[in-house]
Amino acid sequence: MRDLIRSSTTSMTSVPMPLKFLRSHYGSLKESCTNMTDEKAQQLCASIVSVLAMGQDQQPAGSRECLKYCLIAKQRDVGDWGHEYIRQLEGEIADEWALSNNKEELLPLVESIIKFDMKHNAEIQACDLLMEIDKLELLDDHMDSTNYPRVCLYLVNCAVYVEEPERGSIVAGVMKHYLRFKEYPRALCLAMQLNNIDMMVDIFSKCEDPLVRKQLAFMVGRQQLSLDLNDDLPDKTDLTIIMSNVHVNDHFHSLARELDIMEPKTPEEVYKTWLEGLVLRPSYNLDVPVDSARHNLASTFVNAFVNAGFSRDKLVSVEEGNKWMYKNKQHGMLSAAASLGLIHLWDVDGGLTPIDKYLYTSEDYIKSGALLALGIVNCGVRNDCDPALALLSDYVLHESVTLRIGAVLGLGLAYVGTKRQDAIALLLPVLSDSKSTPEVVAMAALACGLISLATPNSEVVSTILQTLLDLPVAELTDGHYSRFLPLALGLCYLGQRDGTEATRAALDALPEPMRSLSQQMLKMCIYAGSGDVLVIQEQLQICSEHYTQSEDKKESDSKKDKDKDKDKDDGKSKAKDMTAMQAVAALSVAVIAMGEETGSEMATRIFAQLGRYGEPAVRRAVPLAIALSSISNPQLSVIDVLNKYSHDLDEEVAHNAIFSMGLVGAGTNNARLATMLRQLAQYHAKNTGHLFMVRIAQGLTHLGKGTLSLSPFHTDRQVMNFSAVAGLLITLVSFLDTKTIMLGKSHYLLYTLATAMYPRWLVTLDEQLEPISVSVRVGQAVDVIGKAGTPKTIAGVHTHTTPVLLAVGERAELATEEYTPLTPVMEGFVILRKKPQN
């Protein structure tokens, strides 16, 4: 009977005829099977009953007869009955595994199913089954050079939807497979995802090919990490130089020459005032004089953003640059001098000379700006001479508070993510110094957080906690800078879920508005980019609360000996601070969801509700959160939503929405967005605050003349750059209090975006690490996870010659057969190896 069933059809699409006839006899066959005394006959009968059970409609729930009779038959060649039978068995095994106590008897069957799946291009089903029963190690024996890429790709993408610690173990397992098949760049990618420094160093040690090691060093440099490699590597010095990013500036300039954009741009060329109509002509008697300090400050930032990294501009670095400094007032001078750092970004050797001359001026604000500029120039680049540490250390505890600000924040930006103990030791005394103002304390805390990024340094954590606990109540409830302390604490724990219990417990000792705010900040940083749905739901719950002031008013009525008006104000400020915590919760929804595209889309939809019905503080955070979900990715739907918010009646919502438009279009030169911003400039011509934001957004849209990106994700959106996230978070948290910080005197915090700036390029290098031009196909990235065969990875292809610029969501592949790339992801610096001639 079994042979008849198997040989009766060769078609893949029809059910064998004998099976159709036997369906009605299913019950009697089961009975016969049970009553059989001959073991061999019983096993043969059970195998047929097992196959028939697959097509039975009226089976009792949870009977799992297909599996039950398969086990009686003791089959080992289950694959002979076909894919559909295997699929049915897999479903039943997963159910049985959850309930069964005797799991051992299922393992031989599982083994044979996995063997069949892996040989018949059904690797995805094999992975699903093994994840259900938590036995992924069974894959090890069945992996070979033909099937490992599909299996690993699928497992890594499944890991996103799994809870820790299972997630970590899946990724670590995949990394082991990659190392086994010598896929070192892919393994390094996963180690960077886990932010595991030891694993990265280990991958370098295991990689025997010196050229591949150089490729790995370029990848680590993109992540802005400085690894302490093993001394037994023969090319350790070369690798360390590559990781230090000193080459970025030269390559960036050659890209600019290739694209013919070296010529500096002026703010006027960015604003295109001649297209704005007559509204902004000086002859019109407006409330805002065109050459006002606020207007000049906006031009300073726009000039810095547009010419970032080009080492040339027409305002600050020219001979008369000094004049421009004095066209600004006080903190405006600080930002004007600091803009030099952005213009000379990554050019440590060339940038020090033009900045250095401002260190000898008598004006403290300009001097402080020059100190900050020194830090910005070194951002993301390591230099053997350590100019930032040498020049800034003298000013960290300077008598002048203004100079302290520039030196402290400059150190933070220069050594972001380096874990440099000597820099931290310089900064910690500033936190406890009696002469430090709340602003200086906040900047020192942020600098410590930036340097010890994503690795909790016990000294830094305890000092920041102590500073928070020692703050006077007035500063905790109404201080504009106190919110940066918990953010600095969060930066130490960025992406680190382990070992946060003690810090959380310590935060419980703070008085109420600050306690909730601090805990939300910490949670936001711990889960950044994780896509954790449960945490997002908690945050949304917090955003939807409505805090009333009734309790505060009752308290104020009972205290008759105090002035009534004063008490009402206290009530208001307390309620306001509780909503400040809600604003952080709204922002953290985007911070947590940004690592995962589906989550980001869902979050953007939810923000529509928060924007309509949320508290004022939550509504102010919504545009920022929307922008974070779509940084340097100007999708039409996102721009339109932000454009609506930019006309909001609440001034701060409008300010944040306009700035968010700049973030969404950062470095894209998006024409539609540029037109919208020009219209906004006309609409808000008489409102200095709004106009300032429009100018900043215009500057960001043309960031680096359209060559730079602020996106914190790279390598096909697989790896999150912690330094970039930190810079974005500091900027966005500053915008939760726009009037005091950004439109007040701390606008220099915009320069923290420098940590996220990086060219959105593909540069190909030959084996001597010299730039080489080859043709590449660039198109929209296509998701090929779990697809059969070898599907196309890009769509809508255009052929270009390297170096090329890649937009968000674009992918490149070589269009020539002459070379092999040493990394599977064509992005950033890619070394090409010439194929041997036949």
UniProtKB/TrEMBL annotation:
Signal peptide: none annotated. GO terms for molecular function: enzyme regulator activity. SUPFAM superfamilies: ARM repeat (SSF48371). Residues 1-276 form the RPN1 N-terminal domain. Keywords: Proteasome, Repeat. Residues 547-576 are annotated as: Disordered. Component of the 19S proteasome regulatory particle complex. The 26S proteasome consists of a 20S core particle (CP) and two 19S regulatory subunits (RP). The regulatory particle is made of a lid composed of 9 subunits, a base containing 6 ATPases and few additional components including PSMD2. Interacts with RPGRIP1L. Interacts with CRY1 in a KDM8-dependent manner. Binds to the intracellular domain of tumor necrosis factor type 1 receptor. The binding domain of TRAP1 and TRAP2 resides outside the death domain of TNFR1. Component of the 26S proteasome, a multiprotein complex involved in the ATP-dependent degradation of ubiquitinated proteins. This complex plays a key role in the maintenance of protein homeostasis by removing misfolded or damaged proteins, which could impair cellular functions, and by removing proteins whose functions are no longer required. Therefore, the proteasome participates in numerous cellular processes, including cell cycle progression, apoptosis, or DNA damage repair. This is 26S proteasome non-ATPase regulatory subunit 2. It comes from Ranatra chinensis.
